[in-house]
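Translate structure to sequence.
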């Protein structure tokens, strides 16, 4: 059998799994078809990682969607290659606001996927060192501190790690009022925490990723996608984060750096949880108005962040993934579910 030197093969002992570019076709039923051929190893096709070989082969067909789960098994049944969805094995992520609530859910999700999380928070005392092992490093800091990038540089250097992922999760949620009632100081504070700090850390992260690529995930808000009464500073800052996301994705995509955002809806944690139970009008608008008819939990958002940080989204950049139970799409409170009227 002849070999095309442009097509990779995956080494499996003294044999290899050869995946040809021509074989990566889409069947009439719409599913990607992988045809494996048995061949002998040659110097031209010797690769150390079966996964890298498969991924390189998949890249020959840009019109094939990313496979959430890839299992390629030799016809002669000697080995099975499997791809773990959302794996972050060997990756290092800086996660701001990661010591509690949504941030902590993101940290746990990343660590469960094999990643190392560097948690930046004003208070990291709630993180149990016994449960952290080497998968979690902490840095007590305010994201508005202009020296934070230098401190992160020192931490990465001491830990012998390189930056792969940045999650800008830290944020300030305040009602703030409308443009006639919000003070300039309140407005500026929202911008400093929710936008300027994101810009500063993202610029730092990009400088670390220029030659090796990476992923930045900004946690915005559904309030950044729609106008919300009395949320002048917060909505403005979160909307600006979406603009920054698209701009940086455009500028640094050629360097292999992806920049995306997650826009959570009403998440039941912290002050928001208190607001939900204290304000009947808020419950009616934000919960009854959502097709899913419930609040979100941090565990609903963390997988979306992990997806955008992982290789599963390697062809996704400049996008906003809204995780809000459908609220922004269908804000029309319904008294009864269909079928019960």
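Result:
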């Amino acid at each position: 059998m002849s070999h095309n030197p442009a097509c990779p093969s995956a080494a499996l002992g003294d044999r290899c799994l050869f995946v040809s570019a021509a074989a990566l076709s889409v069947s009439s039923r719409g599913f990607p078809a992988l045809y494996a051929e048995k061949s002998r190893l040659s110097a031209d096709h010797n690769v150390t990682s079966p996964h890298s070989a498969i991924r390189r082969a998949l890249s020959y067909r840009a019109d094939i969607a990313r496979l959430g789960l890839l299992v390629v098994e030799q016809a002669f049944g000697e080995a099975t290659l499997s791809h773990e969805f959302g794996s972050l094995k060997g990756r290092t992520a800086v996660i701001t606001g990661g010591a509690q609530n949504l941030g902590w859910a993101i940290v746990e999700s990343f660590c469960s996927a094999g990643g190392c999380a560097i948690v930046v928070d004003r208070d990291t005392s709630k993180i149990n060192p016994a449960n952290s092992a080497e998968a979690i490093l902490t840095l007590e800091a305010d994201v508005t501190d202009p020296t934070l990038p230098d401190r992160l540089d020192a931490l990465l250097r001491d830990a012998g790690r390189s930056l792969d992922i940045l999650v800008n999760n830290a944020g300030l949620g305040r009602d703030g009022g409308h443009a006639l009632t919000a003070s300039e100081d309140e407005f500026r504070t929202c911008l400093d925490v929710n936008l300027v700090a994101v810009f500063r850390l993202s610029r730092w992260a990009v400088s670390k990723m220029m030659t090796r690529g990476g992923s930045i995930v900004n946690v915005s808000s559904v309030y950044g996608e729609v106008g919300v009464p009395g949320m002048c500073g917060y909505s403005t800052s979160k909307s600006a984060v979406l603009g920054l996301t698209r701009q940086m994705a455009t500028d640094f995509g050629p360097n292999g750096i992806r920049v995306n955002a997650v826009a959570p809806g009403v998440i039941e944690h912290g002050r928001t949880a208190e607001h939900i139970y204290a304000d009947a009008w808020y419950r009616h608008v934000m919960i009854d108005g959502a097709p899913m008819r419930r609040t979100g939990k941090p565990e609903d958002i963390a997988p979306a962040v992990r997806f955008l940080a992982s290789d599963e989204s390697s062809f996704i950049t400049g996008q906003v993934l809204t995780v809000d139970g459908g609220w922004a799409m269908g804000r029309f409170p319904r008294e009864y579910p269909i079928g019960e009227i």
